[in-house]
Amino acid sequence: MLFHYARVSTTDQNLDRQIQEVKCDRLYCDKQSGKNVNREQLQAMLSNLREGDKISCLSMDRLSRSLTDLINLVKEITSKGATIIFEKEHLIFTPDRNDPFQNLMLSMLGAINQFYRENLLEIQREGIRCAKQRGAYSKERKKKLSKEQINEIKIKMADRNTNATALAQEYKISRCLLYQVLKS
Q: Which residues of the chain have pLDDT under 70?
């Protein structure tokens, strides 16, 4: 059986780039960080994995951003008699072959991916620290609409001739948010 694993870091991100033109028997997709292996679809894929199965993954950083986890996942997959293919890196790990060059590439590229993630987190922390010093940082989301705007929307929507799409565009919000406002 051919599995395909795809992952993006947040629910806002799109998986299309990783799954377009993919032909597989089962598709597993996670929308969360690759910092560890506590991902529902990854664990489901691993539990469904049988001898002779193959996993394709666009790139190794989609499987994991942690070098230790990446190496352990590849070992777990191959120890179950399955194969994993990293398309972008052109690396294939099979249960019957231990290729020193591929192991080196896995370690080097995995270390670079981990460094990239850790570096991004450091830059993010520095940015937050600077924003806090300027008084420009808050964990609370800025509200898109004031109370006055919410009341205006409710009054306008009471008129049955008001177009919801046009009203959402006028206030520069999504229709989904418009309907949430009406429910509140």
A: 140-143
CA dihedral 26, 94, 48, 45 (to 10 degrees): -60
Amino acid at 35: K
9 in active site = yes
* Separation between Cα atoms, residue 93 and residue 99, nearest integer Å: 8
Distance CA 131, CA 142 (A): 15
> Which ranges of the chain does DSSP label H, i.e. alpha helix?
16-19, 40-48, 60-63, 67-79, 100-134, 147-158, 164-170, 175-183
Closest CA to 49 of 71, 76, 23: 76
The answer to whether the beta carbons of residues 66 and 14 sit under 8 Å apart is: no
- What pTM did the predictor assign? 0.71
Residue type, 160: R
The Cβ of residue 51 has, within 10 Å, a number of other Cβ atoms equal to: 8
- The pair phi, psi for residue 29, each rounded to 5°, is -130, 130
Least Cα distance to 7 among 30, 34, 41 occurs for 30
pLDDT, tens only, 74-99? 999 999 999 999 999 999 999 999 99
Of 9, 79, 146, 184, which is the active-site residue? Answer: 9
Residue position matching structure tokens 């520069």: 172
Contact 178, 164 (CB under 8 A): yes
In order of 10, 128, 136, 138, 140, the CA distances from 132 in angstroms are: 24, 6, 6, 8, 13
